[in-house]
Specification:
The chain has 5 helices and 2 strands. By secondary structure, the chain is α+β, with helices and mostly antiparallel strands. Strands 1-2 form a two-stranded parallel ribbon. It is globular, with a radius of gyration of 12 Å.
């Protein structure tokens, strides 16, 4: 939830970067509690909740990432 709050307060980051949440379904609870100001970012795919991905897809995402955050 802290990352979503930070993005709500700094929309300029969503204009510069895409944010992908990958992993367990616990992130879904965060998605449902998402600040209203972020719904447009989801609609335009600047903010995505991918859930689990294959090892190969994870590899591709990590290789293309400019930054990675772990809980």
């Amino acid at each position: 939830q802290r990352v979503l709050d930070m993005l709500a307060h700094h929309p300029d980051l969503l204009a510069r970067y895409r944010f992908l949440f990958v992993g367990r379904t616990g992130w879904l609870a965060d998605q449902e509690a998402m600040p209203d100001s972020l719904h447009d970012a989801v609609r335009t795919k600047r903010l995505q909740f991918l859930g689990y991905v294959s090892e190969y897809e994870k590899y591709k995402l990590l290789r293309a990432a400019q930054a990675t955050l772990y809980p």
